[in-house]
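To: structure subgroup
Subject: Chain for Friday's discussion

All,

I'm putting the inputs and outputs inline so they're searchable in the archive.
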Amino acid sequence: MQTPIEKIEDSEFKELANQAIDKIEQALEKLFETTDFDVDTQRQGSNVLNIKFPNNTVIVINLQTPLHELWLAAKEGGYHFRWSGTKKTPLWLDTKTNEEFFTSVAKHVKQQGGVDLAL
């Protein structure tokens, strides 16, 4: 049985979504420090993360606070991940496929950067 989605306020969404973006950024930094993988991450304010790969492709992750969604723009297309979790167990699911956010991010990093990203 799936846990019911916990209603959150915009401020809580921002905090949880930024924790998700921080997790991605930290995993990429760890990969950079422990392998020869070269990637450039750049934050634009607290709401946008750009991930630029050596092949000049980019993944952009940004918050859509009014919708309580994380948006991911990759070479393959754009994806929207709706808040679907609880404060204790945050979860964002693709609005079309139900794919989990971190799974999708790792997939696109693999496709565009050629490396496995552990999230």
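Points worth raising on Friday:
The two ends are 24 Å apart (CA to CA).
Strands lie at 40-44, 48-52, 58-64, 69-74, 77-83, 92-94.

D.
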